[in-house]
Amino acid sequence: MLEEKLRQLGQGHIARLLESGSAYVSRREIARDLEEIDAPLVRELIAGRFLYEEPAVTAVKPAPVIPASFSSSPESSRFRRHGETLLSQGRVAALVVAGGQGSRLGIDAPKGVVGVTPVRRKSLFQLHAEKILALSNKYAQPIPLFVMTSRANDADTKDFFTAHSFFGLNPDDVFFFVQGMLPSITPEGSFVLSREGGLFMNPDGHGGTLSALKKSGCLDTLKERGIEEIFYFQVDNPLVSICDPLFVGLHSLKGAQMSSKVVRKKSFEEKVGVIAEVEGRTRVLEYSDMNDDMRYAVDGEGEMLYWAGSIAIHMIRRDFVETLTGSAVRLPFHKALKTIPTVDSRGRPTEIQGIKFETFIFDALPMAEKSVTLEVLREREFAPVKNRTGEDSLETSRIMQSNLHRSWLEDLGVNISDRSIVEISPLAALEKDDLRARGKIPPMEVDGELYIP
């Protein structure tokens, strides 16, 4: 019985509203929301267990980072070849976190449908799919794509892929799974009602990717397909080098369970988490968790000490995910205050200060026995689309994409004016060497838009 389940969760106030036939509470919506809730976990969270604890600053030091220059060194070739071997053997999958909406970019649709490329305005979903298609062609092996959606955008995301014929990918190689949800609560531990008559629910964070993989059966699918390594990334970065063979090879040959890419922070104040070492384990420290002594710390040469900014790109071993989701080990939950739109005792719209719980994927790092951190250049691999204008916007991302592709052509002898906008399809080249391998590029001067399909 619904009311009994609510009382078992300590939510008698909602049970009483249902029994009284309150007009602003929907039995159907409440039942649907409760169906998604891990009741024992929710009870533990309300009791204050499984919560994140900040590490002692005295135990923190910079983590070892493989510098970006390594990618052009002779030693890198061994790791790159190993990564290519894993790709050609079908042992690597790509996983994109795509549960967000594009509301901050001015659209009421999944963020992945936003047109981001500088000339053709390809959507993020199309761009990522074409990169995976190009990789599959390059290594003569289909690379499965796992797409984590949310309750809010799952149907729209699937419809978008279907309407565009999966952008050339085989539908049998694309798997959708839905992120988990948790109820928001008051400081006293009561569930908050939504204005739609159900519970006010929030996604359980990108750390919920791991539990959602298991719950959906996708973790079993990975194992059945012989996948050993998962390349994890977020949908809003059009410059991501999906399944980068060097990163794949470094992670695998060094025996890491979870690895990360980082970029050098622009400034001490840039609000990104940093990769650090705490008591011998790698972890990400959020910007808000760093005090000023740590944030502005410098090394012996006066350079920024904690410069390794996390960009939410990871390699994760499949069996490590199985360990994290198949035992008492779990990611810690972060607790955050937020303003919640709800209804008062008479059903009138109001707002309150409530609490949401979420997990972060990078909190799995300190649980790994071995981790690799690789620096990459921001201008080559990190141009996130988070805002409509200003920093990390559509405009800045398109400029960075164009600048990168222009640099490839200029290195191959093409004269391009500063006014030109350049876009190279992933199906034409995933990197500069792919463009060179196509054969000699005829001499040309470009002044305007250039698209290479």
Description of the molecule:
With 453 residues, the protein is of the alpha/beta class. It has two domains: 55-386, Alpha-Beta Complex (Spore Coat Polysaccharide Biosynthesis Protein SpsA, Chain A), CATH 3.90.550.10; 392-453, no CATH class. Helix content is 30%, strand content 21%. It starts with a helix and ends with a strand.
Short summary:
By secondary structure, the protein is of the alpha/beta class.
Looking across the biggest beta sheet, what order are the strands in?
4-3-2-7-11-8-14
List how many beta strands DSSP finds. Answer: 18
The profile of the biggest β sheet is: 7 strands, mixed
The total domain count is: 2
CATH architecture of the largest domain: Alpha-Beta Complex
Strand-helix topology:
Elements: H1 2-8, H2 12-19, H3 27-36, H4 39-46, E1 60-62, H5 76-88, E2 92-97, H6 124-138, E3 145-149, H7 154-163, E4 174-178, E5 181-183, E6 201-203, H8 208-216, H9 218-224, E7 229-234, H10 245-253, E8 258-264, E9 274-278, E10 281-285, H11 292-295, E11 308-317, H12 318-325, E12 334-343, E13 349-358, E14 373-375, H13 378-381, H14 394-411, E15 415-416, E16 421-424, H15 432-437, E17 445-446, E18 449-452
Parallel strand pairs: 2-3, 2-7, 3-4, 8-14, 15-17, 16-18
Antiparallel strand pairs: 1-9, 5-6, 7-11, 8-11, 9-10, 12-13
Helix pairs in contact: 1-2, 5-10
Key structural traits:
453 residues, Spore Coat Polysaccharide Biosynthesis Protein SpsA, Chain A, seven-stranded mixed beta sheet, three-stranded antiparallel beta sheet, 30% helix
